[in-house]
Amino acid sequence: MCTIYKRFILLASPSSTSLFLCRGTTMPTQLISFCRCIHIFGKSSYSLPSRSRNAFPISNNLLESGESLCSSVQSRNTSFFNKVTATQLWKGVTSVSNAGRKRGRGKGVGKKHAKDLNRGQVIGLGKVNMVWPGLNAPILQGKELVQQKQLPPDTEREAKLLKIRDFMGVFRPVRLSPLERGWSGTKMHGRSVGPPDPVGLDTFEGFDTKVLEMKNVAVMDGNFGRKKRFSVVAFTGNKNGLAGYAIGKNPDGRAAIKRAKNKAGQKLLFIERYNQHTVLHDFFCQFGQTKIYVYKKPEGFGLVCHRAIRTMCEVIGIKDLYAKIEGSTNLQHIVKAFMIGVLRQKPYDAMAEDKQLFVVEQREENEDLPVVLAAPTRCRELKEIPSHENLDFRTYGFDGRIVLRRRNFVPFYTSLPSWQNHLLKTEFKRNSNEVKLRLFNDYDGMKSHLTAKHPECDQKYAAALHKKQLMEAAAANENE
User: Fold this and answer.
1) Beta-strand (E) ranges in 200-334?
2) What are phi and psi of 217, to 5 degrees?
3) Is the pTM of this model over 0.70?
4) How far is CA 140 from CA 122, 144, 152, 325, in A?
5) pLDDT (tens digit, 9 = 90+) per residue, 295-328?
6) DSSP-assigned beta bridge partners for residue 370
């Protein structure tokens, strides 16, 4: 008889008083095989080897009786392989540990590839094998009209469909047009996600939302450990001066995009534009260590700036602009700095009242003729303007700051004697453009303070003299 306690096996015989105590960690396998041998071979056909005799000192009376040493043997009917499902077993073999996932391993593990269930399907053919005239069979066959009828069932149809679907290959997403791809490939940065959701009866018709940033962020929690979420910066607008931006966070990426989009629709601001295509004037804006210098440009120049600023300008409705960034290029700082700058733009009337001077614009397409944009209620006289006051409009818009520019590349030929000869020959017209602009600004044309004394120095003198001669000749002809 065999009795099993926690970690020990007590072996005893009914015809003998011998007791043997063995450890359960090393004896069960030998004990079970020994009992089986006693059952099969009996007392005369089995003899213990010397090694077993030393391990199991059992009396001869017990062996001669032929009785079974073990009345019951406990065995384990369950194991690791029949406790868990097949899916869990495969996951244990193919999955990646958390440490490996942090190092970028196993990015494609666990992805479920979609299958096109319509592949292999034919209109008119289904589980019921039927003849449908005009669908999977002709209406007329010779001169006879084809009738609808049922054919014998096709037992291989399901097997053929499964075989076609299994050999479909890797599922490829829908190809996006270049205008919908965003900034880089299939990333969400720069992609359009549609207008914000309606709020009650208010709908956002004509609005479009662009994702400027989408990243993973984490925060440590005392109970849950590291909690990961998606952080999305969305910018929405109607391309007509109305725009807003917001930041949304959520453990789910789509939910974070939706939250940021709807929050941006509730924080709309109106932005002034010049002729509906560019900013009102050059300005400087800063947030943190991000500094942006924005230049007003003529129509047709385009958007020459950071891609985040370009995306914001497209949503706002700005078509022509040049922007230079200095310092940090943190995307959220760029968005905040640019929004601060466009909201701080001053109308020309406010500038004229602030400086108590006329705001005048000169354009090359207007032959650099001065055009008055705004006039103050009271204009300062020349003696009231200090000599150290800077009257440059761009410096006024940049708050006295100067853009950091790289030194121009010096060509090799500047050290040659021939270049010095060229400079001597062209010295008389070296500053002709600057002088022309100054004369137009001061005297309303190519004139000077000597024009009244010497009218022939005026640029228009020859044309006016020719026109006068023509008028005199016409008058003389009429008198004759």
Assistant:
1) 208-221, 225-237, 242-250, 269-270, 283-287, 290-296, 303-304, 321-327
2) -125, 155
3) no
4) 21, 6, 22, 75
5) 999 999 999 999 999 999 999 999 999 999 999 9
6) 362
